[in-house]
Write a structure and sequence with these properties.
The protein is α/β, with parallel strands linked by helices. Helix content is 48%, strand content 12%. It has a single domain (2-268), classed as Alpha-Beta Barrel (TIM Barrel), CATH 3.20.20.140. It is globular.
Length: 269
């Protein structure tokens, strides 16, 4: 089972969506679809209603935090229904207006507090704010955070690992020696894969990414770790099973998908 632990299914437009859904089904990609705001979450839920491989997750991205910081309590029902929370976090690199940083902290803290109360995994963006994100994780200690597309200092990784962090690696691994160095620093039991589709691939290949891109990411990760793709796939599946154990709703869905895969494999034999 392939795992895309960070993507945005809602960002595929109506023309591209059918092909994306077909790839998810064809390649059996278990897909965590993070969202950036309320409208994105509602669209992701609509799409996921017809695909058992897609799990929509509610989050307020730091780029959107200023729109929601004034009325966080209105978001409570969405946080309650989402089996994992994300995409949330801080961004001090692409958000140039420093007057919006307090609102980023306010929204991030609200989600972290909820994650602790509801014992939910968080999926985190921390571009240019890696130290500030880490300090928040150390302070709130949410269960098993996922840090997506980490590109920060190597000397922070041990502290991230100490708070239980898993790291997702995506398309930049195909192009960047720095990301390879970060990958080498992560223990095998904390690795996950992502695509951050459809937008991430545009930074490197000037075209939107599609779900099948996860195969290239997995293949490159296997080469970097000196593993066969089958060995890496087994490791990633073990990691994900361990991760979602703290989220009953998500763990149940994952278990059903794995059971279906085993049944179908047996029938083919």
């Amino acid at each position: 089972m392939l795992i895309d632990a960070h993507t945005h299914i809602d960002m595929f437009d109506d023309a591209a969506l059918p092909a994306a859904l077909a790839e998810i089904e064809q390649h059996q990609i278990f897909t965590l679809s993070v969202t950036i705001d309320v409208a994105a979450y509602e669209r992701a839920k609509q799409i996921a209603a017809n695909s058992p491989l897609i799990v929509p997750l509610f989050g307020i991205h730091p780029w959107e935090a200023h729109r929601f910081a004034h009325d966080l309590d209105s978001l409570a029902p969405l946080l309650a229904e989402s089996p994992m929370l994300g995409e949330i976090g801080l961004d001090f690199l692409l958000v140039k207006d420093k007057s919006r940083y307090p609102q980023q902290f306010e929204v991030f803290d609200y989600f972290l507090e909820t994650a602790v109360t509801q014992q939910k995994i968080v999926n985190i963006h921390g571009l240019g704010a890696e130290t500030a994100v880490l300090e928040r994780l150390e302070q709130f200690q949410p269960p098993t955070p996922i840090v997506h597309w980490y590109s920060g200092p190597l000397n922070l990784i041990d502290r991230y690992l100490a708070v239980g962090t898993y790291f997702t690696f995506g398309v930049e691994l195909l192009y960047s020696e720095k990301i390879e160095q970060i990958l080498a620093a992560i223990p095998p039991d904390r690795l996950l894969t992502e695509t951050d589709n459809p937008g991430a691939n545009k930074h490197f290949a000037q075209q939107p990414g599609t779900p099948a891109l996860i195969q290239q990411v997995t293949a490159k990760m296997a080469r970097c770790r000196r593993l066969s793709e089958a060995e890496l796939d087994a490791q990633l599946n073990q990691n994900f099973t361990r991760l979602v154990a703290s989220s009953p709703a998500l763990a149940e869905k994952w278990a059903k998908i794995l059971a279906t895969e085993v049944t179908e494999s047996t029938e083919k034999k």
